[in-house]
Amino acid sequence: MSMATGIVCIACHLLGLGGLSAFLFWVNLLAYGLLWAATIARVIMFRKQFLADWASHQRGPGFFTSVAATSVLGSQFVLLRQATDIAFGLWIVALVLWVICTYTVFVALSIREEKPTLAEGINGGWLVAVVATQSICTLGCFVLPDRLGDRDAALFFLMSFWLCGGMLYIWMISLIFYRYTFFRFSPGDFMPPYWINMGAMAISTLAGATLVAATGDSPMMISLRPFVKGFTILYWATATWWIPMLVIIGIWRHAVRRVKFTYDPLYWGLVFPLGMYCVCTYRLVEIFELPFLAWISRGFIILAIIAWLFAFSGLLSRFFHVILMAVRVLRPPTTTAARADPSSVTLERPNADPAPLLTRGVP
Questions:
Q1: Are 1 and 315 in contact (CB under 8 A)?
Q2: What is the pTM of this model?
Q3: Backbone dihedral region of 123: left (phi > 0), alpha (psi from -120 to 50 degrees) or beta?
Q4: Cβ-count burial 305-324 (b if 16+ within 10 Å, e if not)
Q5: Which pLDDT tens digit goes with each residue over 94-115?
Q6: Cα 74 from Cα 182, distance rounded (Å)
Q7: pLDDT, tens digit (0-9, with 9 covering 90-100), for 127-159
Q8: Which CATH number fits domain 2-329: 2.60.40.10, 1.50.10.150, 3.20.20.10, 3.20.20.450?
Q9: DSSP-assigned states of every residue in 236-292
């Protein structure tokens, strides 16, 4: 939720929706804090399961969301509050998290003795690792060059992250596309995180455009600018290519195979790519001077806001449903006899453990 809310906030800010952008900034600030509180609580209460998730092919890559969420929040502080000191602190946190996630998750998955098949083990969520890597580059372009003192060194470091993210995408998307085309693909297999196929390339576009904008008078980056521009357009074209395919598969899933369209926390994985495509196209138009693409950002901001509203309303509905179920579980039973004789009322709770009801379906 934090990643998605943050990028939609930035999109609104860039396109002049100041009131909505300010509202989403505070929503994301609250969400970011709550998600960290929930993570810490899980470490304390369910440490064994938490540690096991690092070596899980299905859940392990999800830890990279902490990196991306931190970087996106840092970008919000730069663009909306001009608070570069806070943004730099968040960039340091994101960098440390990236190192921990990269060399824990991938090492754990590599040395694990029992592994799932490719069809069971990989999904679009793996590409969050690409998103996290490119988010380090994007936020770093705002906060690092002026602080490091050596602009060439800072930009070289950040460009290395940008290229590393592209390398990770090539590795992972090859496996994902292979899984698409050579394994059985049921409607249940197409989950919203597959939209990160597009979102990973969108943030790669944003990182490349931000690198070009940060070039300044750096001799090294001036010589590499044509290379960076070319790959940035390649990334944008790849992101654009994915959109019709993902839409068509979504229509097949819901209209042809009649999978019910209901709220799932995974739909936040669809909101983020829509918002990121809006932002990356806006920056591409601005930095590369491509005004004929400006209409795309204006269209996608509407789609991103609609998707965010759907996901957020679904989240609130799920939250109140869980609260209602918890109240029903914890409320003492009331019978006719009990009302007639108050002394017969038992204060014991039902034998069922309310914990599953409190946690079921909460992202």
A1: yes
A2: 0.87
A3: beta
A4: bebbeebbebbeebeeebee
A5: 999 999 999 999 999 999 888 9
A6: 40
A7: 999 999 999 999 999 999 888 878 889 999 999
A8: 1.50.10.150
A9: HHHHHHHHHHHHHHHHIIIIIS-------GGGHHHHHHHHHHHHHHHHHHHHHT-GG
